[in-house]
Amino acid sequence: MQAHLPLLIALAVAVLLGGFILVLSAWLGPRRASSVKEEAFECGNPSSGPARDRFGVKFYLVAILFLVFDIEAVFIYPWAITFADAVRGHNQTSPLALLLEMLAFVAVIIVGLVYAWRKGALEWGPTPAMFNPEPKAGSH
Q1: Which one, of 102, 97, 106, 101, lies nearest residue 68 by Cα?
Q2: Phi then psi dihedrals of residue 88, to 5 deg
């Protein structure tokens, strides 16, 4: 229990400080409501439609692709430190083994990028089929 005491103190201070700030804000904050203040907006822009509109899948797909490649960058940095230590002889791991592991990792990422690219996940403009759809058979 003695080892966890600083953690519990930090957690208690964080909760109390958060609660104190909320209470202070409610107590000292302005209370003049108006129709303009009640209107929802995002990033300074007035709302342009209902909040339950559906977004295209492309937004989510791009977000997932961003996360994949962002995480790749996060993994490359510690590998570079380990690789530099191995080249200097400060690590028992072979630099060639580390290099082959990173090449395999980057190859998997490149295969994923090529797959997403060929599937059109990186295309933002409208496809020609959206403007000129082919007529269905027998619909003349």
Answers
A1: 106
A2: -75, -10
Contact 102, 87 (CB under 8 A): no
What are 122's two structure tokens? 């990186």
Strand partners, 79: none
Say how many C-beta atoms besides its own lie within 10 A of residue 98's C-beta.
19
* pTM, to two decimals: 0.50
Closest among 104, 117, 103 to 65, alpha carbons compared: 117
CA 79 to CA 69: how far, in whole Å?
A: 15
- Helix 57-88 and helix 95-118: axis angle, to 10°? 170
Question: What does the block give as tokens for 27?
Answer: 């107590």
What does each C-alpha distance from 7 to 11, 18, 20, 125 come to in angstroms?
6, 17, 20, 51
Torsion of CA 24, 30, 34, 40, to 10 degrees: -40
Instruction: Report pLDDT digits (tens) over 4-37.
Output: 999 999 999 999 999 999 999 999 988 888 887 7
Two tokens, residue 103:
């090449």
